[in-house]
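Hey,
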Amino acid sequence: MKRFWKHVTIEPGNGIALDGKPVRTPGRAPLALPTPQLAEAVAGEWRTVRETVDPRAMPLTGLANAAIDRIAPDTAAFAAGLAAYGESDLLYYRAEGPPPLVERQRAAWDPLLEWARGRYDVHFETTAGVMHRAQPAATVARLREAVAALDAFRLAGLSPLVTVSGSLVAALALLEGAADRETVWRAAEIDEDWQAEQWGEDELAVQARDAHRADFDAGARFLGLL
């Protein structure tokens, strides 16, 4: 879509308007945000469009569209999909060696699990290797409840954090302010960092990581504006 507007404004109810005409989601619902600060950030994305709309340059708008069109109609189903990551979280599966990698994982991942134990009163089973290790039913249920309690916009912001990192626990820690964005990102990238240190990175791997980081940062920023 080519840029056709001159002015971007925030309307009553935190809606976005282009030259006075309301912006709508792809599903034709009004693009109305839950907080003034998120509305201002989304409006900023529309103001910075030059000649052509590039969705990759407007991640907050994309997450808001997803919250309204895709998540809000059935928040329970979407929440269940994210909660499933709690059954096989990245943080449960540790390297068998070498010792420096094992120690890196322990130092970064154990504090996140310890926070979740106290926050949700649950127990986690960790293991060395990649074979599935079932988690206690009470743990899975408690994590599912925590995700199900979130609204559509928080689920939208949480989604890229979970899918990019592979860790529901780490994403919840970021959501609740128990860990900052960089701590969670570095924890999620330990294995990739290790492989890069040992063997180097090719150009495609770097591009993929940069794209993942952009999605991760957008989710974290989105949540911070709610």
